[in-house]
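Friendly challenge for the regulars: who can give me the structure tokens for this chain first? No prize, just bragging rights.
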Amino acid sequence: MYIVMLASECAPVAKAGGLGDVVFGLGRELEIRGNSVEIILPKYDCMRYDHIWGLQVCFENLSVPWFDHHIPCTVWFGFVHGRKCFFIEPHSSDNFFNRGAFYGFPDEHMRFAFFSRAALEYMLQSGKRPDIIHTHDWQTALVPVMLYEIYQRHGMGNCRVCHTLHNVKHQGIAGDNVLAATGLGRPEWFHDRERMGDDFDSTAINFTKGAIVYSNFVTTVSPRHAWEVRHTEWGYGLGHALHVYQQKFGGIINGLDYDMWNPATDPAIPAHYSADSMTAKQENSLALRQRLFLRQENKPIVAYVGRLDMQKGVDLIRHALYRSLHLGAQFVLLGSGSEPGINAEFWRIKHELNDNPDCHLEIGYDEELAHLIYAGTDILVVPSLFEPCGLTQMIALRYGAVPVVRAVGGLYDTIFDRDHSERPPEQRNGYVFQQSDHLAIESALDRAIDLWFEHPEDFAELAAQGMRCDYSWNQPGADYLNIYELIRHK
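First reply, four minutes later:
Bragging rights claimed.
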């Protein structure tokens, strides 16, 4: 099968979050399974060009319709760790992708509307006719709309689109200037709520709404989150549209890159280990304590790794920190937030506990340190208010750290409570709590810490069971191929 992915990110060359990991990981899995996969990206000036091999011009003078004129573009080709990637470089005073950052600009909707139109125009002019075009998040959500409304009349009628919702909080809300720019026109047609009309702003169009309506299939990044976006406030207003099109909507859990995250080979950790031989994990705990100036004592290390924002449950993270110390454990935090108030609060806690030999807060992000924390920690807390998929709990399992998670989104689909899950005991891999209050996280965290102290052999077996879980791209890759086959023949 010939598959083209369109996205605003692809790790490691252009990565701001988990989206980039998904595009790279899924692309590789599909290739391993014998498919031809190409990835089309904007050519940002701030990309990691050191991760691109053989970068060269592959299509000159791509002329992309935009308002009442055309913008010339150059298309570049290069390999990103084996993935075939095409980079679109527009030559325009708009300077869409030469701004020193991937996101964060007031004309965001115009930047990615242009990229979507340019990607389709490149496929048209170069003769590419993929079986499947897989688009990701709001940045490429106009592609299925333009494919159906414009490009299917120009020889691309056999292409099918799968669109994935990674974060429905960001939907691409814009005015009629996008319709004029892309050549879609007809504001009265697209403002219809059955097409792209935003359900809350009658003057706006909604990119993601358009993708839901026009795509052949829509996915999100876990089965539980697929239910949540239809039936709870975490749909951010898209619940009705997803209900109407429920027959072409489903959730597929993201995979984890098992080459990058592998305690048996990880170059960032001092001692390698596996589920069948975990004794070396203790050496990593020793190294973690040395690096962070923690007291060398036989007690569990509890950790949090990730962003510090409201979605991640900052109040529960803070409570887990103090609760862990109260119960005789050590606590390590690695993360930072985009909201100044949250960052300031954790800096305050850092100063308050600066002399505590059982606690260390690292405000910021350090990839190498993250690997060491996963390898050295015993328990990882993930108390998210909502979590479409989540990778930290999968990484924790991979490294033999027992996750303590709230039962939302992908956390619900991947972590099964040691004491209360309906799964067989050998399939249980962590601790789960339901509510978002202090007593709820205590109910799970206390059990985890107690098991470590009172029944260390049982705790070690629980950690080993987590390491034996398979959350690689193997199963998600098969699930996506089933969807592609389904829509190819419609």
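The chain has a mean pLDDT of 96. The radius of gyration is 24 Å. Your move, everyone else.
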